[in-house]
Write a structure and sequence with these properties.
Elements: E1 5-9, E2 12-20, H1 21-36, H2 51-81, E3 86-94, E4 102-111, E5 116-117, E6 124-129, H3 134-147, E7 150-153, E8 165-174, E9 177-190, H4 198-204, E10 212-218, E11 232-246, H5 252-257, H6 265-299, E12 300-301, H7 306-326, H8 343-363, H9 369-380, H10 386-394, H11 397-419, E13 421-426, H12 429-436
Parallel strand pairs: 6-13
Antiparallel strand pairs: 1-2, 2-4, 3-4, 5-12, 7-11, 8-9, 8-11, 10-11
Helix pairs in contact: 1-2, 3-6, 6-11, 6-12, 7-8, 9-10, 9-11
Length: 437
């Protein structure tokens, strides 16, 4: 029997389902009989409860379950027969005036859209590349040295300079009144490294041990402390200790302390370069993948299923609540999270997912087993025991699915780059890191 599908609006469709009442009643009777064999009721031995008593107690709920199951089955059969790709769950309502011996329902639902992807040869994509320079290695070495610096107290006559660690007491007031977080004793920070607001650092820089000073400090309008954001405080600060930093020399001892078995500066620089190249490769791929996805979205025409967008909105809101809970926010599970905050991002994700799926299907860009294995091996290579990492990925289907998704994205990226009008752009190491941040 042919299924009649009515188009309501864009992706919305309607199917009318008819179910024979005798089929429903037969299944209800069958389930009630099974239930009677195990149900426990006061005044009756197990399995000896009369059918009329079982039906009186459980008939309504069993009838509801059967109706729900049968309508679901009928919808699945009808959708399959009409070759429909259903998005989300159908909304099912019972119809009035069904023919005798039948019950009828309207199933309203959405289908996945037809995705039209324009000519990729006209898509414009900027593809970046970055080389790991000697200066990038030098900067990384400086960071590693700072992480291992030691401190020695400055003589009392010497003033605080950039790089010094100072120990201070401070107290701030707004309109003559103290405020929360505006006072501390024995507080340490490094001068010139952005740990404190600029006015605070400027005031302490040049001071000597035992000295005090007062200064105004204007809190930025977007300061994390909402009570003081955009306001100006008067601070009193007293310096109790100034310590000068001593950085380790770049030598064999530093190399060994960083786990370089050869113990040479050359081997240390080579190891840093290898790690930076791995980081650069990942960031360049991410940057180029983003450019490809932007171009794909711009070239595609499709309607978005509301149900799929809603599912993505729900998932993102749940993720936001989990994040609030992880930050220790009270009653995070009940936090009101407006859907509209996430709607643009949710719609983009759904659109991109449908476009990528269409491109993968049309051009056989699925991930192969060899590609998945190679990607896992690459991920594991940066760890001390790669074999353990490989086993960790292979032991969980969810992790394997995540790797497969990444490989598919890489396949799509390479496919589009091969088709599109590509502009090559060389970024410096600092530019790449700054954009990624």
């Amino acid at each position: 029997m042919a299924v009649t599908v009515e188009t309501l609006e864009k992706l919305e469709r309607k199917i009318t389902l008819a179910l024979p009442l005798n089929t429903i009643q037969s299944e209800v009777d069958s389930r009630l009989k099974r239930l009677a064999r195990t149900v426990k009721m006061d005044g009756f031995r197990p399995g000896k409860v009369p059918m009329n008593v079982v039906a009186q107690r459980y008939g309504y709920s069993v009838h509801y379950e059967v109706l729900n199951d049968k309508v679901g089955e009928a919808f699945a059969v009808a959708a399959n027969e009409a070759q429909l790709r259903v998005a989300g769950q159908p909304k099912i309502t019972e119809k009035e005036g069904a023919p005798e011996g039948q019950v009828t329902f309207d199933a309203v639902f959405e289908v996945f859209p037809e995705v039209k992807i324009g000519d990729l040869a006209t898509a414009e994509v900027e593809k970046v590349s970055t080389e790991v320079s000697e200066s990038a290695i030098d900067k990384t070495l400086d960071i590693l040295r700072k992480q291992r610096r030691t401190f020695a107290q400055r003589p009392a006559a010497e003033a605080a300079a950039d790089g010094d660690r100072v120990t201070v007491d401070f107290e701030g007031k707004i309109d003559g009144e103290p405020f929360e977080g505006g006072k501390a004793e024995g507080f340490q920070f490094l001068v010139g490294e952005g740990q404190m607001l600029k006015e605070f650092e400027d005031a302490v820089r040049g001071m000597k041990t035992g000295e005090s000073t007062t200064f105004p400090l204007a809190f930025p309008a977007d300061y994390h402390g909402k009570d003081v954001a955009g306001k100006t405080a008067d601070f009193l600060v007293t310096v109790h200790k100034i310590e000068v930093a001593n950085l380790p020399d770049v030598n064999a001892d530093l190399a060994k302390s960083l786990g370089i078995t050869e113990g040479t500066v050359e081997a240390l620089r080579a190891d840093i370069k290898k790690n930076l190249e791995r980081e650069v490769s990942a960031r360049v791929l991410g940057r180029n993948k983003q450019a490809v996805m932007d171009a794909l979205v711009a070239k595609a025409e499709l309607d978005l299923p509301k149900a799929t967008v809603q599912a993505e909105l729900d998932r993102m809101a749940e993720g936001a609540r989990a994040d609030l809970k992880a930050r220790g926010i009270k009653d995070a599970d009940k936090a009101p999270i407006p859907e509209e905050l996430f709607r643009p991002q949710a719609e983009r994700r759904v659109r991109l997912g449908l476009v990528v799926a269409e491109l993968v299907k049309a051009n056989n860009l699925q991930a192969t087993a060899d590609q998945i294995k190679a990607h896992i091996d690459e991920l594991a290579a940066s760890y001390e025991k790669p074999a353990d990492v490989v086993r960790w990925y292979n032991s969980d289907n969810r992790r394997l699915a995540e790797v497969e998704a990444v490989v598919i994205e890489n396949n799509v990226t390479n496919f589009v780059l091969a088709q599109a009008k590509v502009t090559e752009k060389a970024l410096s190491f600092d530019e790449l890191m700054g954009q990624s941040a």
